[in-house]
Amino acid sequence: MTPEEIRALTIEGVEQRIAAIRTEMESESADIDALTSEVDALEARRKQLHDVAQRKAQLRSRVAAGTEGTVTRAFAADNTDTPEQSYNRNSPEYRTAWLKNMAVRDGVHLLGEMTKQERAAYTMTTANTAAPVPTEIMNRIVDLVQSSTAIYSDATKSGMTSGFAIPRIKAIKQGDAKETAEGVANDDEQDTWDQLSLDGVEIKKHLVITRKMTWQSIAAFETWIAEHLARRIGNAKDKRCITQLDSTTYGIDTGNVLTDQAYDDASIRGIMAKVKEEGVRCVYANSNTVWNGLFGIQDANKRPIFLPSQTDDPRIAGHIYGAAVKIDENVPDNTAYVGVPSSLLANNFEELYISNQQESKTFNTVVGGYSLFDAGLENPKAFVKVTFKTTGE
Question: Which end of the chain is least crowded, N or C, by CB within 10 Å?
């Protein structure tokens, strides 16, 4: 770099160039003499910047005397903005100024001095307290409301908006394919039919956001709000799937509803045997049932039948006889649904719709989510619902 370029560097630029020289000096073609001279000049520039920064820090301390404990506007003489603009902690100028003010070492501004606009936007206190943190940098929402959608996630989804109906053949009392003598007719067909017809249920969720929260952080919350509403409505859909599995009309065959089962190998094999559907099987239960019940089951040779998952998929806790065990906290304690999830049909008559409006009395913003949804089991014998006896019973 030329002497003029070095004199124009900030402390950050000096450090970046010195770091680059560390790499350049390792090259066989490096001009060591030239690099040595450049480093000398860079170190001199760094010392100069340190001296200036320290003098500025001392000057700020002197001019701030007598104002401790009061809130002041930094660099007020340079401010040409309106008060509303100056105190806008969401502005890009404020956020940049805040970062520059934090990035100070030994009185040196590592990210450079504030611009006029940044100084005008920055608000601080002189009482040696932390500078006000810009709202967007502080935004972080910890969602402690769990959402479980394992059953709904695995269901076969459709989006028929006008209606949902599927004819089902339940039995062939007469007329099944069979061998006959030459020229002899087969038996007349006697098939039993019904129809899986779903009307849909409305699922709604809304959030109320105060005027103060809206002013401070609504822009940063927008993505989270949409995701939160989607998760909560998805959770409600999962609960609807469970309700429909329990339905005598749209759910599991009464012969596949088992109660008072033991947490043992024989019971598990009996449950698996009652699933009458081709496809990948899954076991759905809450964490208490999985870890305090299913996990401890052993076969006759004292070998565990529950094998913890060896994958990174957080949805799968393990496997029992090849069936994936998935945790769904919407399933009650000591209860499990075992079956082929593709046989569960889930129809979204209307996908998630989000809208918002402001209440005129409270000035709160109400953000609402809506979905029209329903579910039903295509094959009533594709699932088994089992309730286990608790330990000691």
Answer: C
